[in-house]
Batch of 4 targets.
Target 1
Amino acid sequence: MPRPHVLLSAAVSLDGCLDDTGEGRLLLSGAEDFDRVDAIRAASDAILVGAGTLRADRPRLLVNSQERRAGRVADGRPAYPLKVTVSGSGELDPGDPFWTTGGERLVYTTDRGAAVARARLGDAARVVALGAAVDWAALLDDLGGRGVRRLMVEGGARVHTQLLRLGLADELRLAVAPLVVGEPDAPRLFGPGAYPGGPRGRMRVLGSEPVGDVIVTRYAPTAPGTTDGVTAADRHWLRLACDLAADCPPSETAFSVGAVVVAADGTELARGHSREGGDPVVHAEEAALAKLPGDDPRLATATVYSSLEPCAHRASRPKPCARLIVDAGVRRVVTAWREPDTFVPGADGIGVLAQAGVVVAEVPELAAAAILPNRHLVTPTVS
Ligand SMILES: Nc1nc(O)c(N)c(N[C@@H]2O[C@H](COP(=O)(O)O)[C@@H](O)[C@H]2O)n1
């Protein structure tokens, strides 16, 4: 099951604070912005907050608009999204309104915390143990398995920080309020640490709009992952590679493939697709790499995204794409679809890459998109 789309939602002051240090909660948003948040909740399958936020703010996490709840029901969904919290200790207060209002509730915790949470909450929530520590990737896999396609995360700072640092957030929707808190101890949205792409990595701006007196901007992380684990940004770039494959001139004798080369900071360096520019035999990865100088220093930390595993054998050129990638000095490849035996039986481009020390991450959930423009070339059992 695919992981849900993870949307981090937050409001901050101009100096990046979530709150001030005074009594009660600092109201950063006005009525229009609260209504915007209500609309995102209504469009989500689940809403998640950390246990710290639950204790501090006692949120109910409801969809307040009756019309929006009715719309959900008309679409065959529950009136309220699933409410999710994450707690290492399981020390949760059953008196909080979170447990007695709105939709069904789910607690993710540790093996140790599960017994505590079950004893405290009884029937108020389902409790899922994730091992010795809370494993965020496992949590998202579990939510995907429960049919959650859109997850809204409403904080707090620790949860936002962890999801962004792990590369598990697809989108950040940030409301910036026109005030400066100025207090050194006020809580800030993101804590210190190593974020994907490092301090110079830039996110992509998806859009921006004024809502009352706040400005809401939507960002998408772009910096590739660094391991064989797949991040949200990896999925974005690989989806683009699959879209490029769909744009290839059709062929009965070769696959349609798309490829994108992305620098460690999230900058797109080059893209290509099969048979690009009227060359009937050029491959996607080859076309993309050919657009970069061979000594481009960014290649050593770049990731190549290819809808199909890079080829291991070629008749039409001296070097297969797996070799071109190794020779370019690229150390990481992300791909959606292992090559079927249509043209070259037993082609193992992933093996060639791995043997040369290149990290390969596979995203089987995007295989269907990679296969789509090639469906006439594969047997029905493969597709
Ligand atoms: N990775 C990749 N990118 C493309 O754009 C492709 N067309 C292919 N096809 C595979 O490459 C091998 C044959 O290449 P030639 O036809 O000899 O150039 C074979 O393994 C095809 O399946 N791969």
Target 2
Amino acid sequence: MTQSNRMLLGVNIDHVATLRQARGTRYPDPVKAALDAEEAGADGITVHLREDRRHIQERDVLLLKDVLQTRMNFEMGVTEEMMAFAERIRPAHICLVPETRQELTTEGGLDVAGQEARIKAAVERLSRLGSEVSLFIDADERQIEASRRVGAPAIELHTGRYADAQTPGEVAEELKRVADGVAFGLGQGLIVNAGHGLHYHNVEAVAAIKGINELNIGHALVAHALFVGFKSAVAEMKALILAASRH
Ligand SMILES: CC(=O)[C@@H](O)[C@H](O)COP(=O)(O)O
Ligand SMILES: NCC(=O)COP(=O)(O)O
């Protein structure tokens, strides 16, 4: 896959499923959210099938596989269960993420440098499906170099530290960390995506970083959709990203 000449928006629909799972109902359906997101301009749909199944379920992924017009970015932990499931659905994109059951959300990047042989084997196995494999990592040169060494064509830089930064100084520091990571990743010949914790008030600075291929955004979109509807929430985010990335 080549890098797109405009910044892409991957819409993560996990937290539509969070609301459904809170009551064990049939609604709201993340599959409907995915189709609405596509109509509103999403370039792809991201789902994270967690080991604890707290939001997305196998049923969602299987239906999405049949109905998406764009492409699925399937986020998964590096476990045999998930590898086997990915082999069943053969998603266009697979993003390997770190996962622990107790965490509130994905709290850091995958430690590729610390487990190169294991990640390399996973990347090789998943690449045989024809999937483009990316690694969800911190913007850290050691992890970026290791990602290249294990043969992943793409990385997604974790923007959570930027999103959580409190003071203007911390925000600037974390933004620079992301921008440096993007430049370093591109220099390594990688496709560079980014995401986590991005919302309507912090996305523009990240979207202004040259060279990012795609931003994956979920929680803030679902939250805003409560007030404006899912299509409008996606369209607003897409407009912000495109305007900021053109400057
Ligand atoms: C890997 C990633 O950043 C997303 O999949 C995110 O983790 C989804 O939300 P939760 O972490 O709340 O499951
Ligand atoms: N990989 C990041 C993602 O898919 C969305 O994360 P968030 O916007 O829900 O924090």
Target 3
Amino acid sequence: MAVFTPLSDAQVAEFLRRFDVGNLVSLEGVAGGTENTTFFVTTDRRELVLTLFEQGEHEELPFFVDLLDYLDEHRLPVPGPVHDREGIALHSLAGKPSLLFPRLPGRHPMAPNLMQCQALGDALGRMHAVSQHFPGHRPNPRDLNWLVAMHHRVLGYLSPEDQALMKDEVEIYQGVFGAASELPHGALHGDLFRDNTLFEGDRLGGIIDFYNGCTGDLLFDLAIVINDWASGPEGQLDRERHDAILCAYQARRPLTDDEREVWPTMLRMTALRYWLSRLLVVYVDPPAHDLTPHDPAQFHTILTARLKHGALPLPEASNT
Ligand SMILES: Nc1ncnc2c1ncn2[C@@H]1O[C@H](COP(=O)(O)OP(=O)(O)O)[C@@H](O)[C@H]1O
Ligand SMILES: N[C@@H](CCOP(=O)(O)O)C(=O)O
């Protein structure tokens, strides 16, 4: 259920003529997406992905193109947008903004092994090492300001205990992160869950779905990754996966003392970020399309596990 805008072979064949990618052989709608319409496109020369943007702020699309171009130029495993013969990447198709990408190899690792965790930590560390110099700017749309503004909208749907939990946590985050942040800053993926990566065996084929991409605290990105990639069924951290990601990451970008100090709070804040965004989807702003929403309880479990057990000790950069 992700082809919100159907396209004919003839429409796509015509569209492809602007690009130096060969002629259309086949077109396949992708069922797995949730926000945009995605097609796998096969030409007589290569495998491509065509994305039509169904929602979001279309004026922000040039930021995503610039970010993907930049990361691609720095040899990160991302799908660099295909530019047409005149150098333009962003087009309109069936009235929707559209981008063409190379199709990256692999599958989403739902139970990642330690080699996969290491590969992801390495790629994220490399990405953050270069993304600190990315010249673009897009404020993090899910940062502390957003949490402060939006958490009131779900309180009425929560038990008294969970209301207190959410309010107390947001207040703590304001104390820790409220002053002008000194943390290392750069471009973030913003939603680097397992299902936004593709692996061929242990090799990272690519990182996709940069549409939460933004600029902000690099640690925010890393905490999202640890919460998704290294949480067990009860929300507790899996030490081996945690250390595999963090050792590989720090071999590329060691964490600063300031980052180490706020790390336990950042893990909790990014857990609450998803608890809240999922609650908003369930109770306040359900999607127009008939999609099963992600379960908010999963991130409630992760948040309470972080509160109960704290964070694991961070590996030292020199251990790598
Ligand atoms: N460049 C790519 N290479 C290979 N597969 C891709 C690529 N881009 C997207 N996909 C596939 O299409 C699916 C949906 O794409 P995604 O950008 O995540 O859409 P949505 O934002 O709607 O969830 C992904 O889960 C992945 O399986
Ligand atoms: N990966 C997220 C969905 C994207 O977050 P959003 O804040 O842009 O809705 C999830 O698993 O909830």
Target 4
Amino acid sequence: MELVRIRRALHQIPEIGFQEVKTQAYLMDIISQFPQERIELVKWRTGLAVKVRGDNPTKMIGWRTDMDALAIMEETELEFQSQHPGFMHACGHDIHMTIAIGLLHKLIDEPIQDDVVILFQPAEEGPGGALPFREWLKTDKPDFLPDCIYALHIAPELPVGTVGTRSGLLFANTSELFIDLHGKGGHAAFPHLTEDMAIAAASMLMQLQTVVSRNVNPMDSAVLTIGKLSAGTVQNIIAEHARLEGTIRTLTSESMSQVKQRIEAICRAVEQANNCQVHIDYGSSYLEVKNDETLAENFLRYASQVKGIQAIQSDAAMTGEDFGYFTEQIPGVMFWAGVSSAYGLHHSKLNPDEQVLELMPDFLHGFFLKS
Ligand SMILES: CC(=O)N[C@@H](CCC[C@H](N)C(=O)O)C(=O)O
């Protein structure tokens, strides 16, 4: 299998959530070149579910990969860099999909006892494909619904060959956050006749910093990041509109509700103080990823015995993953797989080491053989 070629081809066609049309077509083309006797493929929106029949199945194991990219301008200057300006596989989903293809090929070549279903899931970065995909499988394709489910995420800071996970909570509860402020703009020379939304947004941004530092129990944990702040139109007009775009991360749904209540109180206060209208939109939200204890222990035990693999216990992280909607109802494990990149996830220069492409399909095939 020329996995490097496949990864580079996928890397060149990054598409955001539910727009993975070329990605889906490319994957289907690759899969159509495999022997078809053991496999059954169904499409779901821009995603795919591919079932591989085992020799003597007692269960169906699930493997999930995400497919979407991010709206980031790539700056790697690699010869195979993104052909879609402004979009990049900066979260490693091109690597994830290629590993899934490698695993699929291996399972066809050397079948195992159990059935395996590989889920190519769109829209992990947003607005979230896991929940509707899971629900569709349950209602329309129950014979594609796995009994247990696994997934990996690349870890730029870990060397290739290292895999890490933990029992229980791995990733945070998340909610996107979009806040629009509307007030009376006007001429830059007459500020007393306006309500400046740039000032109102700046003050809101600062006040939002007190939510985690002053309202969340220090023994709990939360993150409130505003990744984008925009206001106004040109240099000599006082802004009538401003927008804050961010994300909230907590360890439980309860603390997510508390954080949201504080954000709402701050927005009402900014409305009053600045004589403006504030509108909050929480966008999409993801459940925390909770690894099944027994499966996670089995996984780490297996990994620690494989030559060339270093298994580590990971800490929980404030990353979000809609894989949490799978582990909510299906026992599962997500793990980190090292890719030795100097630049991290969501960075325009992320450059994973492609050696992981050869290593992981073999490793997973061995794991599924013994699961
Ligand atoms: C693994 C990873 O980086 N996941 C994303 C998921 C984003 C969810 C949503 N769009 C949000 O921003 O809340 C992450 O940013 O953690």
